[in-house]
From TrEMBL:
Residue ranges of every copy of the ABC transporter domain listed in the record: 5-230, 287-520
Protein name according to UniProt: ATPase components of ABC transporters with duplicated ATPase domains
Keywords for the protein's UniProt record, in alphabetical order: ATP-binding, Coiled coil, Nucleotide-binding
Species of provenance: Agromyces flavus
MF GO annotations: ATP binding; ATP hydrolysis activity; DNA binding
Coiled-coil portions: 545-604
Compositionally biased region (Low complexity): 527-542
Domain of life where this protein originates: Bacteria
Region Disordered: start-end pairs: 516-543
Pfam assignment, any one: ABC_tran_CTD
Length: 614
């Protein structure tokens, strides 16, 4: 395989610490590399060094002549005044980019809900992030560096991105380097893993599952001080081998060695014991949603249009003690509404919600609200104000930990205990938030996108705590690995109804693809003939209305281009030799075709406009 770029004896230091020292590595054609490591150890910095965005203090990065390098970093560099179309395809003519299958696939995969002619400055942060990713992916690159590309993507978007990068090059062409905390994506896409730690970059063969195996082997041979970390990763490996059969087919995953390492490792959870404890803490009744529907007022309703939008429709869900359920659905499907029904923040429009008398619900939210009152306090003071102990596990395996020991398990050092909460990193705040919630000892725990700002090690540590948590657990997350790891059941919100998924996330993705195919297969409204009578055209709402508005905008763009082509054709006719009747006839036929296309588009424009205004 041809060499693309390499780093030789890289040295980089910041005022307070050395980040890299004597790091040498290379990237060849066909490489698909995932970078993992603790937050702050230098994953993004390494990527910037290799991509030429940052100069090392020592050593050098060499790039083969003619290599095209593209990079998605975490900074938003889009011009807020430009349109989405200009940001993604620039000044390329529509008929040019629309004829490129790769460009169409990127736009459909990332920007289906983003207004094509909208201003970048009017978009949400997540939409801007996806526009930036789309603008990168439509280009032709030999090496792609992606820093947290799965942020702001849902489960479907992450699955699409995995398919795209796997099919972007032939197996022995191009190179991909990605930093992400999404372990499913790492395992699906990567053929090698680099772990950044302690000023070095350590290479491992294979994706995330193979990396975990090799790391367990390395830790087993290391000093006894690594015992705690080794046990945690061994538990992770046990789940990878037992709980996810698809991963065991990886050719580079040495199954015999894995089985030997985990033969005495118990399952990650004891469901019988956890369920017994959950029933003792909760009783038999948790939360029952009985024939529940929720409707919201529709903003900017056209005259005569529907005034209410149904989010959840006649939904029934009896949540059991000890149930561990992952909830899937596209943005806007009603996941947050469903959680708020459980907590009581939202009341059903019809039906009723019944809660057990002993239910105590806690929510790990995205807003870090639990830390608001502790902003100026040191971490040690926050911990001291809580319970003096916390028990994990049960029976003979129960272990009583102090809050300080819990903090240590979640990656806090003794020095960080004196740090004010306001000065903690995003990941540290997230871990402290989880600790405060666990110390309240709720018996129903709701996790709403809990993986933000956490690295793979910290996710494994949190999952370890949740494995021994004896209560009802509801998880909403775009992190497929987390959902499969900590829950025993997955459900999806589809068209306002709750659908059980016996085959998990794979089944959900199949159902979503089937939905999309059904919509695609619907017959288009007739254009050549119309029904007699004065009946007004049917009004559009929701997704149909947005699709019609997009079609109107597309027709406007095409009409503008056709009018320019007609004007140019008239000029050609005027300049052409007037005695060349054959040539004039050809130009006249071309002009007639353009004018006919304009007439067809104008007819369609009127039809769609009537549907919007009716």
């Amino acid at each position: 395989m041809a060499h693309l770029l390499g780093a030789e004896r890289l040295h980089l230091e910041f005022p307070t610490r050395v980040v890299f020292d004597e790091v040498t590595l290379g990237i060849d054609e066909g490489d698909r590399i995932g970078i993992v490591g603790r937050n702050g150890d230098g994953k993004s910095t390494l990527m910037k060094l290799l991509a030429g965005r940052l100069e090392p203090d020592g050593g050098r990065v060499t790039v083969r002549r003619g290599i095209r390098i593209g990079m998605l970093d975490q900074a938003d560099a889009l011009d807020p005044a430009t349109t989405v179309a200009d940001a993604v395809v620039g000044g390329i003519e529509e008929h040019v980019w629309a004829g490129d299958a790769k460009v169409r696939d990127v736009i459909a995969g990332l920007l289906a809900d983003v207004p094509w002619q909208g201003r970048v400055g009017d978009l949400s942060g997540g939409q801007r992030r996806r526009v930036g990713l789309a603008a990168l992916l439509v280009g032709d690159w030999d090496v792609l560096f992606l820093d947290e590309p799965t942020n702001h993507l849902d489960v479907e978007g992450i699955a699409w991105l995995a398919r795209h990068v796997k099919g972007r090059w032939a197996a022995s062409d191009g190179a991909l380097v990605v930093v992400t905390h999404d372990r499913w994506f790492l395992d699906e896409v990567c053929t090698a893993t680099w772990e950044v730690h302690d000023r070095v970059v350590e290479p491992f063969e294979g994706g995330y599952a193979a990396y975990v195996l090799q790391r367990v082997e390395r830790d087993r041979m290391a000093a006894a001080s690594e015992a705690k970390r080794q046990n945690l990763m061994r538990k992770e490996l046990a789940w990878l081998r037992r709980g996810a059969p698809a991963r065991t087919s990886k050719p580079k995953f040495r199954i015999e060695a894995a089985n030997q390492l985990i033969e005495n490792e118990p399952p990650v959870r004891n469901p019988v014991e956890l369920n017994r404890l959950a029933v003792s803490r909760l009783g038999k009744d948790v939360v029952d949603l009985l024939d529940v529907s929720v409707e919201y007022p529709m903003p900017d309703v056209a005259p005569g249009g529907p005034a209410m939008r149904t989010v959840l429709h006649e939904l029934e869900w009896r949540i059991a003690p000890g149930e561990r359920t992952g909830i899937l659905g596209v943005n806007g499907a009603g996941k947050s509404t469903l959680l708020k029904l459980v907590t009581g923040e939202v009341q059903p429009t019809t039906g009723r919600v019944k809660r057990g008398k002993t239910v105590k619900i806690a929510v790990l939210s995205q807003e870090l609200a639990e830390l608001a009152e502790w902003t100026d306090e040191r971490v040690s003071a926050v911990v001291a104000a809580q319970r003096t102990s916390y028990t994990i596990g049960s029976g003979s395996k129960a272990v009583e930990l102090t809050p300080g020991q819990l903090l240590e398990r979640l990656g806090f050092t003794n020095q960080q205990l004196a740090t004010p909460v306001r000065d903690l990193s995003g990941g540290q705040k997230r871990r402290l938030q989880l600790l405060l919630i666990l110390l309240q000892e709720p018996n129903v725990l709701i996790l709403d996108e809990p993986t933000n700002d956490l690295d793979t090690d910290m996710l494994a540590a949190i999952e370890d705590l949740l494995d021994a948590w004896p209560g009802t657990l509801l998880v909403v997350s775009h992190d497929r690995y987390l959902v499969e790891r900590v829950t025993d059941r997955q459900v999806a919100i589809l068209d306002g109804h709750l659908r059980d998924l016996p085959r998990g996330v794979d089944q959900y993705l199949e159902l979503r693809r089937q939905q999309a195919a059904d919509v695609e297969a619907r017959p288009a409204p007739p254009t050549a003939t119309r029904s007699p009578g004065p009946a007004a055209p049917a009004q559009l709402a929701g997704a149909d209305r947005r699709a019609a508005e997009k079609e109107i905008a597309s027709i406007d763009r095409r009409l503008e281009k056709l009018q320019a082509q007609i004007a140019a054709q008239h000029e050609r006719l005027a300049r052409h030799d007037q005695s060349d009747y054959v040539g004039l006839g050809v130009l006249g036929d071309e002009l007639a075709e353009l004018e006919g296309a304009v007439a067809d588009l104008e007819t369609r424009w009127l039809e769609v406009s009537e549907q919007l205004e009716g």
